[in-house]
Amino acid sequence: MEQGEDPRQAARQPDQDPKAQARAAKTQARAARAALASMLAPVRRHTRLAMALQIIGAAATIVPYIAIAELAKVLLAPGPADPGEVRGAVLIAVLGLSVRALFGGVALAVTHFADVALQASLRRRIVARLGRAPLGWFTANSSATVRKAAQNDVHDLHYLVAHSAVETTAAVTVPVAGLGYLFWLDWRLALLALATLPLYAGAYAYMMKDFGPQMGRLNAGIAAINKAIVEFVTGIGVVKTFGRAGRAHAGYREAATRFGDHYSGWVRPMLKLEAFSSMAVSAPVVLLVNLAGGIWFVHAGWVSPVDVLTASMVAMVIPSVLVTLGFGAQARREASAAAERIAAVLETPVLPESCRPKVPDGHEVELHDVSFSYDGSVDVLDGVSLRLVPGTVTAPLRERSTLLVIAHRLSTVTAADQIVVLDEGRVTEVGTHQELMVLDGRYARFWNERHRALGWRIAVDAS
User: Fold this and answer.
1) Which PANTHER family does the entry mention (predicted)?
2) How much helix, strand and coil, in percent to the nearest 5, is found in the chain?
């Protein structure tokens, strides 16, 4: 990639070299991560506070398991059980569950309020930025692009901000605390709880190796479908007039077909591998492995049956943690791509503003040597100077060399106080209808040709 080149464009170029594609994808991923980090900066303090609260709540998740293990030891001990020890174990379990619910709930509340504020801020920034963008930008970019950035992409940040940080923190804290307890019981029980994880981790790494480029193509497909929908809706009038109902939705059908083919081609080969790897960390398999290994440990005299049951319960928590981590990683990748697209919209060039704006004196509007271009190359206004007096109506008519007047109806401008005729963006005639007719210039010639054309009829040969 050349220095200064946009990484988004570099990643989309149809380069046939796999190494170049990989480099472009990595460059785009770094740019996306940077855009995401910048976009999440306003809520970073709230996120860190929520993560700290969730660490306390997640650590408390292990407390009921410890309490149950201690209660089992008390109840299985020879002789009558001590009521005080039983009540103490029950109270510890209830306390652990209460702390988990309280701190976890407060953490989610903090992140949800932060998410609402962030989404509102981003949408206001997008509206404010596009409100200052030149009209030519909207010609070059479809409304689907604006809709995706302001609605879909901003919404894609929701899970990352409101859920992912809190849930990922819990997903890391729970197994760490649980494994710490198992290592305290017996290191063999801790290793047994992790026995099936390498199979899942290896399969997951293999399935995710091309995720970045594939998601880029997936997002491009969604954008193409949105664009086709917008084009179809805006062209309904043409469809009704010219009867293209059979072909009008061809663009949407083709975009949807390409999207479906790419998605199925990417996902289908991974389904079997995903199914087998998920079975390796499923609750029945984890329980079977831990009970089988635990029986061996008990016969060897290393641990007690109560310790095996406690370790098995803790081990069954770990697979659910993997699912949460998977969703969190997926949410971060999607949010990174969304943040990159939002950043592109927020970087839209805006029209220049005066450094020394003045308050208008009166209500008269005067244009002096005004030029304007939609695309920056072709001027639709070139050196226009006009005075628009309050209480009057000015009708601008635009002409080209073919004398085509772009207006609703020529007859509707006759009552205007001032008619301005533009030719190649320049003012050629100014006046009322009567004054321009007396002038006998372009306006008068076109008016006369228009009226002669109204009498045209298509003759039908009766023979």
Assistant:
1) ATP-BINDING CASSETTE SUB-FAMILY B, ATP-BINDING CASSETTE SUB-FAMILY B MEMBER 6
2) 70, 10, 20
DSSP symbol at 150 = I
- d(C-alpha 203, C-alpha 206), whole Å: 5
Structure tokens at 194: 């992790």
Residues with Cβ within 8 Å of residue 104, at least 6 apart in sequence: 53, 54, 57, 58, 166, 170
Prediction pTM value: 0.59
CA distance 425 to 404: 13
Residue spans per domain, the chain: 28-186+317-352, 190-302, 365-454
pLDDT in tens, 2-40: 444 444 444 444 444 555 655 666 777 677 778 788 888
Q: Is 264 helix (H, G, I), strand (E, B) or coil?
A: helix
The listed CATH number (1.20.1560.10, 1.10.10.10, 1.25.40.10, 3.40.50.12780) that belongs to domain 28-186+317-352 = 1.20.1560.10
Q: Which residues, 6+ apart, have CB-to-CB distance to 197 below 8 Å?
A: 281, 318, 322
